[in-house]
Design a protein that fits this description.
Layout (H helix, E strand, L loop, with lengths): L2 H4 L8 E7 L6 E7 L2 E4 L7 H6 L3 H7 L4 E4 H9 L7 E3 L6 E6 L3 H13 L3 H15 L11 H12 L5 H7 L4 E6 L10 E3 L7 E2 L2 E7 L5 E8 L2 E2 H4 L6 H5 L6 E8 L14 E4 L5 E4 L10 H8 L11 E6 L11 H4 L4 E3 L3
Family: Belongs to the FAH family.
Keywords: Hydrolase, Metal-binding
GO molecular function: hydrolase activity; metal ion binding
Amino acid sequence: MSQDNRLPDDQHQALLVGRVWRDTPEGPALVIVRDGQVIDVSGSVGNMADLLDRDDAARWAASVTGPVLCDVTTLLDNSERSPQLAPHLLAPCDIQAIKACGVTFAVSLLERVIEEQASGDPGRAAELRDELQRLIGGDLSRITPGSDEAMALRDELKARGAWSQYMEVGIGPDAEVFTKAQPLSSVGFGAWVGLHPASHWNNPEPEIVLAVNAAGVPIGATLGNDVNLRDIEGRSALLLGKAKDNNASCAIGPSFACSTSTSPWTTCAAPWSRCASTAKTTASGSRTRATCARSAAHRRNWSVRPSAPITNTRMASCCFSAPCSRRSRIGTDQVRDSPTIRATS
């Protein structure tokens, strides 16, 4: 994979911050990528959460100095080796909570409703798809969730027996928000991603990941892999926690691109996904943020909604539906019996 495919399109202007693993005894370090060099700034800030909480985070990251660990090409190459060599990338988040928002794209919402009601019957799926399109009468993404129009559609779908839990969080007033992974449990670019051994139907699930501070303000963005265990979470919404929070099941990276006046986080595009399985099947595609049922700001507000001022709370990575840290230094013994896939961008 070329460097151009592993970093943002505006990598030469982007302000990239991340975490790397150094040879022991040094361990993890915060780094800034500047002019193709990976600069260790861990002597100036303790962790990523503290960096994001700075009032001048982007300005500070643009000017801070420190020793050069290596060039960025070496870092990326080391991260893709097996086993990985130090220094290599870790997930850019550390002690923050990792929240995810599901059912964010209108087309995905419809297909999940169809999947739920068709029970694997292709003929029935085609009938349902046509029926839903007639009921909706156009592009579902044009409907504002929670609006009068959305509620009228909800009532109509309920009356026709076409309502579902997916439709509720897709166009209803409340977004789906769940805890994706524990702090420090995400893996980084090039690491192996863990799949629960009970799952036999699964796929990578590329997401846009926002890095937000304790006040809920977006500081930057990157990519993530939500790891979809379709045969588990698709059976019941109550199985979502079991399906989502597993060893090495969250991949984030390669680094956070800080929001600046020239590269605001709002310009980030949904990732292009090209997924190959051991069965040699390949799926590819992309989505624009414009087709999301809810805005990023709306989902962020549902992820960070304190009833009182936040104190000593770390809110970090909000996955809006692959790249990554160590081969899961959660402990390789914990994941060695699980099928794995390689995390890439």
